[in-house]
Amino acid sequence: MSLRGGGECPVQGLALSWLLKAAILPAAAHAGTALPTSPRFRTHRFIHGWAGIALAALLVAAPAWGFARKAKAPQDPTGASLEATLAGEFALQAGKLDEAAKAYLEAAKAANDATLAERATRISLLAKDNRRAEQALALWRRLGGDPIAQSAAQASLALRRGDEAQARRELAVLMAADDGWQQVVGVLSVGARDPEQSARLLKGLVDDGAIPPKLQAWLAFGGLAQKLDQDELAERIVDEVVRRFPGEPRVALLRASQLREAGKPDEARKVLAELNANPALAPELRMLVASEYDELGDFPAAAATLAQGPQDEHTYALRASLLARSEDKTALGALYEELRRDAGKPDPQRRLLLGQIAEFLKRFDEALEWYRGVPGGDQKWPARLRTANVLHELKRAPEAYKSLHDLQADAGAPEEARRDAYILEAELQNRDKSPDGELDAYARGLAAFPDDPEILYARALGWERRDNIARAEADFRKILVADPDSTAALNALGYTLADRTTRYQEALELIDRARAAEPDNAAIIDSYGWVLYRLGRTEEALVELRRALSLQKDPEIAAHVGEVLWELGRKDEARKYFRQARELDPENRSLKRVLDKLGLDDIGP
């Protein structure tokens, strides 16, 4: 299943169905993707719309801090390290990071293996075992390896110990290396003890003039300052970038983003308008301008930006999505009429898009005609799924279910489409308030696709919705039997146990397994912070939750930060995060739940 996060810019390479699912498509399954129905399940919160696109495109991804889950066999002819290596792997698989760190360090010592020493270092850092991390790192340095990666690990270790002087020395080594600044961004993003520490070190780098004279580096550090909520520092960096790289459009985009984050939307719009007025602006940069308008909540301006220049199915789809999100049915209707004039040829992608727009406009009969007119290609299968949804909207439920049954039985259909037909049938049965029908659809789907993770995951959400946590857990565990390394299932199950039971230690071990695979995943860090909170480790929890929010602005994470601050008696600060969560999504389930729990009717403007 798709996980939130990843390397490429979310604008580029997204399928049509991805672009439209949050805005045009209802919350039902569609081609190739089973949409989650609960925001609790952490790694399955997808980026809806364009959130964060401009910043993500400006930043250069820092090297990943994860590590391969399976250890390389040590070069040890005596086999003295084999038992320790296996013990380490088993401990890691069980989410026992302390035991894994100890075993891997023993294995590295026995084998004199640099790879195992590196692994022991990283696991120890993840386990917050500073003493063992120091031993493993010393061994790793003695055995050789990548000195840049070692300096990054040493900097993280120094930060964890609170030795900022040593951390600065290591960061200086990194900054002096070719492209070592990327490692520095990684250390300050996920390796520091807390966001305030990262901010102090970032300010020191700027004060010392240590940032290299490269546009990408300045953009990355400017973006990091924004993520850390350091408005003054971000503005200072932006001013310096403007001075160093005058006339560079990406700098203007960073300026607009910084102004938006600083609560100056009118000034941000002025910068964007000046950029937009340039007819020679590259198409990819114009998309980023549109995404900044989107971040400002100005969907019409975003759509108007994309309407400039040559159009293709990609830009048409984005414009449709933006107009749908703004609920501007007049403008969306005009776009629909524009597109349908050129729809005489049997273009599958165009007809699928027209069907989706017609569906959003509630022109269900027209939508049905467009979907049924998709002649073939990859678009045929989402069109068949959407046909069922439209029939259901037209109150023709028997026909909707028959169309899904036909697709399920179509031997010529891709397995993914057949599988999604079961998931969509279950969703429609849920809409019809037929729990027996929903469960029957899942059961038949699993009979056709035994232990399919998508179906199991969807059914687990259904069980959780009914407060049947035992059965939700059973389905998550079935996924893990087939794929023990599924970070989605590990995190979802761990979060569920932390949120809905008192089995906090077990939840922690599951989440730690997910952290070992993806230590810089904001959703997983949020789950980690949440289970720490449930364990009563409130101060630690706040650090992790704020780290998660610095990595991704998300309403559920913001609500968690607010709840922990409220618990600590910092109520005014808590209200700030509740307001942030409301701005991101006023209907967020976690936000509503915590406000109800605390009896908060008014969190201020």
Automatic annotation (TrEMBL):
SMART domains (alphabetical) = TPR
Instruction: Identify the Pfam families for this entry.
Output: TPR_15
Q: Which domain of life is it from?
A: Bacteria
* Keyword terms, alphabetized: Membrane, TPR repeat, Transmembrane, Transmembrane helix
PROSITE patterns attached to this UniProt entry? TPR (PS50005)
Enumerate the transmembrane spans: 47-68
Query: Repeat TPR: residue ranges?
Result: 555-588
Determine if Transmembrane helix is one of this entry's keywords.
yes
Under SUPFAM superfamilies, the record lists: TPR-like
Signal sequence span per UniProt? none
What is the protein's name according to its record?
Answer: Tetratricopeptide repeat protein
